[in-house]
Amino acid sequence: MRLHRLDITAFGPFGGARTVDFDALSAAGLFLLHGPTGAGKTSVLDAVCYALYGSVPGARQSGQGAHLRSDHAPPGTRTEVRLDLTVAGRRLEITRQPPWERPKLRGKGTTVDKAQTWLREYDSTAGVWQDRSRSHQETGEEITQLLGMSRDQFCQVVLLPQGDFARFLRADAEARSKLLGRLFDTRRFADVEKRLADRRKAAEARVRDGDAALLADAHRMQQAAGDAMDLPALAPGDPGLAEAVLGAAAVARSTARERLTVARCRLAAAESAHAAARRALDDIRERARLQHRFAEARQRAERLQESAAARRETRERMERARKAEAVAPALELRDAAEADHRRAAAAEARTRGQLTGPHAGADAGGLAAAARRSAEELGGLDAARRAERRLAELTDERAGLDRQENADEDILREADAWLADWDGTRAALQARVDSAQEAATRAEQLAVQRAPMQRRLDAARTRDRLATDLAQARQRAEASAQRALDARAHWLDLKEQRLNGIAAELAAHLTDGEPCAVCGATAHPAPARKTTGHVDRDTEDRALAAYQRAEERHTDDERQLGEVREALAAATAEAGETPTDRLTAEAGELEEEYARARRAASALHAAQEELRRAGHEREQRLADRHQAALRAASRLTRRDTLEREQAALEAELTQARGTSDSVAARAAQLERLTARLTEAADAVRVAEDTAQRLKDADARLADAAYRAGFDTPQAAAAALLDAAAYRVLQHRLDAWQQEEAAVRAVLDEPGAAAADRQPPADPATAERTASGAERRLREAASARDAAARCCTELDRLSARATEAVRRLAPLREEYGRVARLAALTAGNSADNERRMRLESYVLAARLEQVAAAATVRLQRMSSGRYTLVHSDDRAGRGRSGLGLHVVDAWTGRARDTATLSGGETFFASLALALGLADVVTDEAGGVRLDTLFIDEGFGSLDDQTLDEVLDVLDSLRERDRSVGIVSHVADLRRRIHAQLEVVKGRSGSTLRQHGVG
What we know:
By secondary structure, the chain is an alpha+beta fold. The strands form 4 sheets. Strands 2-1-4-5-8-9 form a 6-stranded antiparallel sheet. The model has no long low-confidence stretch (mean pLDDT about 75).
């Protein structure tokens, strides 16, 4: 990294624009940055750091750059830092502007402009600067990647703060660990320590979980085995737990099998006793059953003997019923004849009661003759009935004429009233038609406006959507541009690495005796070898292809961004700048007005139809009024004709009615009389016939009762039984016979009789004996089952415990290995004699490299007296690895760096800082640091030591480096000719360069 130019505006103590030409200062190799205290020497270094990283070193950093602005700057001048430098073979220009609170352009007050960043790269081929990025994050990542150092590393390596390294020399191991860890980024080794500790904890937890599960199975085995198993007094994770559990399980299984054998023997004995008790119980129960059955049969025989008289009476009753069945048909005939005679006599009495006068006592013949005479008189009234019906029709017709006359009068009145309002009705209907026609015209006009309004609204919505798409397309274009830049930087890095190792690539094709393609030599004594990480042509080509693909993608994204912009411009031209909500409201109002006009126009057809119907109704009412006049004239003629016909019919009917109110009433009277006489004649004839049949039935019944052996018909009727009663008596006799046979069969059984002769049986005692035997059998079976279950459960749990122990074996082995590694890396292991953590071990190696690099310069500064050495001895009870001693060649003894004097501490810390810069540079990937700054500390040196220190710094020019010394020591201004002076003043500090071309 080489600095070329620094432009500062309104930054720190510098109120105006100031420029530092580092190319001119670096030409001498060693230049001095001096000025009075508080003039702003350190602010120049802060500006370099701010340009690179966007922040200033250490405690001077406050906020996001808001306090970097100079208090001397005019209100209209913005703070800006621009740095021109070369890094990794690329010429870059970085411009940064912190946030700026400026006066508002309009109105009063102030506003805050955001921070700005520009990154440009010089294209040597085209001879122009090209923009690379305007993003804070992208610029910061680009610079950090090129330098290979963070801000803290840069401030320690490039801006060498001597006070920090003096404290480093006197610090303890913990403070040195923090600084070295920040510079060399050993977090990955701390992560390894943490990862191993986490793995140890996880493995330990899994082992403990496995042991806990094993102990749980052991407790289950103890519950199953009872007092046959004793658990070891061990906890999860204790050594020997698995062997102790498996041993206890084996003892418990052996004891359980012995108990199972004893339980089986007891069960066999209980089964034999139970079988004998069941046989004895069955015998006693059978004897008790036979004794009870025989006693019950004797009781049933006694009850049959007591019911013998009832059985004889039932048999005699059934015999009399069988004899009476021969008289039953005659009885049924006589009952039927008697019923018919009673019905006929009742009918005769009823019909005679309806007759009056001489007809009430007449016989059947007289009643029939009177009925014939009434029928003949009824036939003569047919003509009178027809005349009466015609008279009724005439009356109805005259009433109809009256109703028609009333209706015509109503029609005339309604027609006159309606026709009187015709002119007003027609005018109102015509006005409705005209209004609807106007609405239709308005609807057509609005319909023409709807389509343009809808197109404008759609364009506005498209405009809003494309505005969002434009932001997304811009983000994609910026992202693809950044990816293209990253791919190009990666390709250029690989290309530079390949060029750096091109010698090895060319040497790979050398053949002994064949000329070299570069120098033409045929001897190749020491061809270059490819180193680790060598970049070949294929890798470079892949990086170039990736860069080209990224560039194509960026081109596509830019094209899509242009398309979206064009579409947005077209939509904006169509929709204008009117907001979408306003256009939506205007379109809604237009639609509502159009809908109202359509609704009003839709009434046009109805209004025209109503006007047409009104005209038709006027014509119909005029016609109805004319027809009503014609019907009135016709009614007068018809009414005269009806009156003449009605007078003739009334005379004829007066003669036919006689004393009745009407001919119909007379006819109805004759019809009723004829029907009553006919009914009475029929009833008298039927009564006479049924009386004769009843007399004949009585005679036949008396003869049948005598032949059947009964004294009277009434005795035969009393002896009769219906089918249900007869079946009841028969079933009763059958039941007595069956009971007698069953009792005789039981009493004749030899087994029952023999059991009756034996002593009474005692089933209760036998059942108690059998129950006790059964209970003892169940207890023995339960004991046998429990013992079998215990054996099965112990076998199952033992197998599971054995499997668990087998599964846990690799885990225990892994836990032991991980625990040893974790303790070793954490410094807690007995194998780690110096108790060094892994991170401390790595830092100790880095410190050893730094001490070796610092010793080269320290020996020159101290005339070969002092040497810095790294010590890994433990300090007291603490950890070891980060000790630092200085070896004095005059005494040959090593002593602590804290015993150095002020001047010795300065050049020792300077040598340490330069050595650290070399090591960190190599750690960062070998980025060349062509510009270094050393801040203060020279005032503590004598003249001879100062000369030696300046000789060491001057030797850095051999590697084409330039070193800037920041100091206010007056003697340095005489020794160093190239100077950058910071002049302090009331209006702010200024910069002056001396001793440069």
